[in-house]
């Protein structure tokens, strides 16, 4: 289905470019079917040489596309919607928004057009094809949801969720990248303190974290089941875990995720 439709990615930063490259790599799109927009198009010149269409004209890009990806910051959204409003056709266009904190209804209300909108929340691991992307909508049909899933499956793993949970997905998955990176950084610093050189400690911590995640994903296991396998009575693992918990490890992570969700919910100002 997607190979029959041109796509415009409005705001070709890290997320937009990673999606474009993932679509081409997967063979779903050819470069000439993808239009990339940016206020300063100079950094995109190399992509033009590869066959992508490059422009700073969002309205023109929208008019020639069937699928329009809104890949900009919340504070930039209203200006962008003003630019493309006249070119949006409800029976032609599917809008995909990766804008944090903005509901599908917000976009339709601002446009004053009943166009199908699907929200997608990837994270920065999209750059290596390992994104966790959540997808939701309040008005798109099943075929549109399936199409968006197909697109983002090229750059990682997708999961459909209720649209009202998209702000929570932002905190857990998009912001979550930073949380897990900080925990790996902390582990590597602990490794340095107990005798390893910093580069070795970081590599050891990162690979250990990757292995822990793969245990859960590949075995469909629960964290506590895997934790039990490395905790013996009066052992060093349970001693370390308890010391971390006494200092608020789990509580701090939970509170941080909730705080990020609270802030994500108010990033977009409708006026």
Automatic annotation (TrEMBL):
Pfam families: F420_oxidored, P5CR_dimer
GO molecular function annotation: pyrroline-5-carboxylate reductase activity
InterPro entries named among the record's database cross-references: 6-PGluconate_DH-like_C_sf (IPR008927), NAD(P)-bd_dom_sf (IPR036291), P5C_Rdtase_cat_N (IPR028939), P5CR_dimer (IPR029036), Pyrroline-COOH_reductase (IPR000304)
Binding residues annotated for NADPH, in chain numbering: 58
Keyword Iron: no
Domain Pyrroline-5-carboxylate reductase catalytic N-terminal intervals: 7-100
Domain Pyrroline-5-carboxylate reductase dimerisation: 163-263
Reaction equations catalysed: L-proline + NADP(+) = (S)-1-pyrroline-5-carboxylate + NADPH + 2 H(+); L-proline + NAD(+) = (S)-1-pyrroline-5-carboxylate + NADH + 2 H(+)
Keywords attached to this entry: Amino-acid biosynthesis, Cytoplasm, NADP, Oxidoreductase, Proline biosynthesis
One GO cellular component term noted in the UniProt record for this chain: cytoplasm
Enzyme Commission designation: 1.5.1.2
Pathways per UniProt: Amino-acid biosynthesis; L-proline biosynthesis; L-proline from L-glutamate 5-semialdehyde: step 1/1
SUPFAM superfamilies for the chain: 6-phosphogluconate dehydrogenase C-terminal domain-like (SSF48179), NAD(P)-binding Rossmann-fold domains (SSF51735)
GO biological process, one term: L-proline biosynthetic process
This protein's record includes keyword Cytoplasm: yes
Enzyme class, spelled out: oxidoreductase
Protein's job: Catalyzes the reduction of 1-pyrroline-5-carboxylate (PCA) to L-proline.
Family recorded in the similarity comment: Belongs to the pyrroline-5-carboxylate reductase family.
Name by which UniProt lists this protein: Pyrroline-5-carboxylate reductase
